[in-house]
What we know:
Blueprint: E1 2-7, E2 13-19, E3 42-43, E4 57-63, E5 72-78, H1 83-93, E6 99-103, H2 109-117, E7 121-125, H3 127-132, H4 141-153, H5 165-197, H6 209-216, H7 222-254, H8 257-262, H9 270-280, H10 289-295, E8 300-302, E9 311-314, H11 320-336, H12 338-350, H13 353-374, H14 378-384
Parallel strand pairs: 1-6, 2-4, 6-7
Antiparallel strand pairs: 1-2, 2-3, 4-5, 8-9
Amino acid sequence: MAISFRGSRASGKTDWVGCGGGFEPPTFDFIKSSASSDLSTLGSANDQGLGRKEAEHVDYRLRLSPEQTGECGERRLTHRGGEAEQFYRELKKKGISVRVGMEATGHSRWFERLLAELNDELWVGDPAQIRAKRVRKQKNDRRDAEHLLKLMLENNFPRIWVPTPENRDVRQLVLHRHRLVGMRTRVLNQLQAIAMNEGVRRKRGLWTEKGRAQLESLPLPPWTTRRRQELLELLDRFDPSIDQLSQAIVQEAARVPEVQRLQTHPGVGPITALAFVLVLGTPCRFGCGKQVASYLGLIPCEGSSADNWRLGHISKQGNALLRFLLGQAAQSVARSEEQWRHQYVHLALRRNHAIAKVAMARKLAVRLFWMWRRGWDYQQLKKFGSHVG
């Protein structure tokens, strides 16, 4: 049984196209996995916001394979009432194997969990490549679903790697800590502004015991006093929560040997090493360091033609959190390693500090990739590794 669907955030509807058949779908591992030559059971889906709130209805069209009856039919399924979920469960009871393909999107975890529970196969495609394969200018949900099904039938579906549920859960730990740190920084900046308006300029000293006492003793108008008090209460709640999350990250990093190995590199701590392993998934997905830099969005955009060669800002197409962590870690490496510091200063003087930071972040990403792929620690990298970046 093959299914194709296309969800629409605006209309709250989803178009489905199906192609019937019965066989056990093959297993796939990485990005470069090819589709099965047996096309008796294929499905494709284009999910743009297929959450329980976003998509309430489903337009479903079934097409049975030629060796079956060849019948076609349409009906509407309701997500909110659980009709779509019931439809998949009925297929499972009948012993029909289903393969579903959809574009990479958010708000679809519930659907992925449902298919995993029913042991149905899910393919997730690259939206940019799917869009590039479209020829016609007419675009609607049903045409999108038919286009995805056609790509799967032609063995041309641009399938991408999908992280495991455990991987996604640990990512939430890293992301949650990062968000809380950002919120704490904004609270600190507001308290600094209050102190500076009253003539107190202690910078980091404001967060010492004496600085905190001076901040609390400042005579302020009523509403400013309330703002100061509530900001201090928020700050007192952030610190223990962030400490607990930091300890949890250290424990998660200790469970993964690859993360421990990456931490031997100067400037790379458990947060950066764990995020690097979680985002890349496995080093076998990439053939060289250039592919890693491209995956993380650390390569420049290009608009060249003929003899006109033009490079723009970095693409920023990868994981924004990991790019930020690599940038911070690269600056830490530049402070601890003399060779990195000389290269950073040279780039900053020749170009500017922003370009130098991105270049060093890219170099660090390539170094960590090769350490991970070859199973080296930092001392082995220095002894056997070549110049990268």
